[in-house]
Design brief:
Strands 1-2-3 form a three-stranded antiparallel beta sheet. With about 70 residues, it is an alpha+beta fold. It has two helices and three strands. A hairpin with a 7-residue loop joins β2 and β3.
């Protein structure tokens, strides 16, 4: 299970699964913003799931550059 603002990063595949199975508001918002269309995180990289408010624009999926550095 993905926990928003936990400071823990998750594989893109884990985030996608959480979004598809959970009915939590956070999962629904992340799904709507990142998994509908072409803006989906790479499943081989780790990401933090963050929010800074209840609006969909306040949700972010940010790459963990320690676990998944850019080449």
């Amino acid at each position: 299970m993905v926990v928003v603002n936990s400071g823990e990063s998750y594989l893109g595949a884990e985030i996608r699964e959480w979004c598809s199975r959970s009915k939590e508001q956070d999962a629904v918002m992340v799904n709507a913003k990142y998994y509908s269309g072409f803006r989906e995180p790479n499943d081989g990289a780790f990401y933090f799931v963050e929010k800074d408010g209840e609006n969909i624009s306040k949700y972010r999926v940010v790459r963990d550059l320690v676990k998944s550095p850019r080449l």
